[in-house]
Write a structure and sequence with these properties.
It is a single chain. The chain is mainly α. It has one domain (21-137). Helices cover 56% and strands 0% of the residues. The two termini are 26 Å apart.
Length: 158
């Protein structure tokens, strides 16, 4: 049972009970889904740059700390995920994020060129899992099917 089942027609159980999704809830859910999908696309871009230029450079490599064109490209692409992540993962009604909350998001979730490969890979996996969770939780409220990018498969039952 999801935490938003009371917002889904039928209470998230496929039948009676529950209240109808309001226009504001559906609009907020659609915005979260859109941000999550844009975040997934940006994450693919970041992973592509990472795989091409940073992965396997080696631990303790000075190249990861220098402002090389590859490092700048990677960090710029990763920074582009911040506003999308804030929109996709922010809890509705929680108010505006403080500077400290935004800094924590960046430090905890967004990969950086100067970090170890294992840290960046973990952050990218975590972001992908969070995007999938956001789509599964908010998709029914928004009235959209999950994307196939996170392992969902739509099949016709016989």
């Amino acid at each position: 049972m999801g935490m938003f089942d009371d917002l889904i027609p039928g209470g998230g159980k496929g039948g009676g009970g529950g209240r109808q999704v309001g226009v504001q809830q559906r609009s907020a859910a659609m915005a979260k889904i859109a941000a999550a999908r844009q975040l997934r696309e940006q994450l693919k871009n970041v992973r592509g740059i990472y795989d091409k230029t940073l992965k396997g450079v080696g631990p303790w490599s000075l190249l990861e700390y220098l402002p090389t064109p590859a490092n700048r490209e990677f960090d710029a692409a990763a920074a582009g995920m911040v506003p999308l992540a804030r929109q996709a993962f922010r809890v509705p009604g929680s108010g505006a994020d403080s500077d400290a909350e935004q800094a924590a998001l960046v430090k905890g979730l967004i990969p950086r060129a100067r970090d170890f490969d294992s840290e960046n890979e973990q952050r990218m996996r975590q972001l992908e899992q969070m995007i999938g969770s956001t789509e599964r939780e908010w998709g029914p409220i928004a009235g959209v099917a999950p994307s196939n990018d996170d392992g969902w498969k739509i099949e016709r039952l016989k």
